[in-house]
Design goal:
heterodimer, A: about 120 residues, mainly alpha, 2 domains, about 75% helix, B: mainly alpha, about 0% strand, globular
Chain lengths: ~120, ~240
């Protein structure tokens, strides 16, 4: 029951987010405003107890949620076929540059703050 | 045989088909992924998409028919974004301590990911509406579509780029992070959420809770930065 109540809180936050986003003509999508509202709502222990259950379930299966749009993308691949290899090159190289630069900056800024910390072992992520 | 064919025609036209096919295929592919020790190449999003697309084309099912069922899953993307508040809230003290590091990495990483895509595309002579659709590729597909429309790009193209970027990042991140010696879960997760959007963040959540929390954080920040800053920057550059 806590899970269902948590889902209700989440839907309420999202709906409120949609309303706020539209009413104030914010450039942010409704669910993002809902996320910000939820951060405040989580101060309340009762909300926290419910939402923690629902959120853990939703996020544990996050990758499933991208499947429908992904199937749609595959049927739209003709959109990029006219640019072919060039677009794949731009996508791949920029993704690798973005990942590497972000990881290195995150590490170096944090390393400076936590001097002497033991290097954690390699991991599979 | 005729009866089977009739039954199939009936079933494949109801929302039940898209919903059942998506969940059954995902569950199968995901259990294989777990058995393979979450090898990056066995990514469950990629293989679910490939198998479902194959099933649709073999059975001659149009995408809208499939989506009439799959939309119930697709709908949950919105609540999942709201649910990102939970891992963030759990690590709020740690995040407050790292606030500057986090913001700096998000700003520079996001700018480099978007900027390098546009720059490479420009150098290769891609037309401007394609470049504008490339710019928001690092955030999740629904947000990327909205931002691309705002910029004057093509939303459908932006969705394609966002999904391909997410898959690429989720499947190659491990090797890249090992190469640049980014061993910390937090750094790896944060990079995936910044440069590979929702699909990258989903991968991080499967690998380790710390990586997942930082991926969620990075995704949230990137959605905020991209939605707010990108239209401003593009107006400044484009005049």
């Amino acid at each position: 029951m806590d899970g269902l109540k948590g889902f209700a809180w989440i839907l309420l936050a999202q709906s409120l987010g949609e309303i706020v986003s539209r009413a104030l003509k914010l450039p942010l999508p409704g669910p993002v405003v809902g996320l910000i509202l939820m951060l405040f709502a989580l101060q309340i222990p009762l909300v926290r107890r419910h939402v923690s259950v629902a959120a853990d379930v939703l996020l544990a299966h996050l990758s499933l949620l991208f499947v429908p749009i992904g199937v749609g993308v595959l049927s739209h691949l003709d959109l990029i076929s006219q640019y072919g290899f060039r677009i794949l090159l731009a996508l791949a190289v920029s993704t690798w540059i973005g990942l590497a630069v972000t990881a290195v900056i995150f590490r170096s800024v944090n390393a400076r703050r936590a001097k002497g910390a033991v290097e954690p072992p390699a991991n599979p992520s | 045989m005729n009866q089977v064919a009739e039954l199939w025609i009936y079933l494949s036209a109801t929302p039940l088909f898209g919903l059942t096919a998506t969940i059954v295929i995902y569950v199968l592919v995901h259990s294989l992924y777990v058995k393979l020790n979450q090898a990056p190449w066995a990514n469950p999003v990629l293989w679910s998409i490939v198998l479902l697309a194959g099933l649709l084309s073999l059975s001659n099912t149009p995408y809208p028919t499939y989506f009439s069922g799959a939309q119930f899953i697709h709908f949950l993307l919105g609540p999942a974004v709201v649910a990102l508040a939970w891992p963030l809230w759990q690590r709020r003290h740690e995040l407050a301590r790292r606030a500057w590091a986090v913001l700096l990495a998000a700003l520079i990483g996001g700018t480099v990911a978007a900027g390098s895509a546009v720059a490479i595309g420009y150098a290769l002579g891609l037309p401007s509406e394609v470049l504008l659709s490339l710019a928001p590729k690092s955030v999740t597909a629904p947000v990327a579509m909205g931002v691309a429309a705002e910029l004057g790009g093509i939303p459908a193209l932006a969705a394609v780029f966002a999904v391909l970027t997410g898959l690429l990042g989720a499947m190659s991140g491990k090797y890249l992070f090992d190469a640049v010696r980014a061993t910390e879960h937090a750094a790896r997760g944060f990079a995936l959420g910044t440069a590979a959007g929702g699909i990258g963040a989903a991968r991080a959540m499967q690998v380790h809770p710390d990586a997942g929390a930082y991926a969620a954080l990075a995704l949230g920040i990137q959605v905020l930065l991209t939605s707010i800053l990108m239209p401003v920057v593009s107006r400044l550059i484009g005049g």
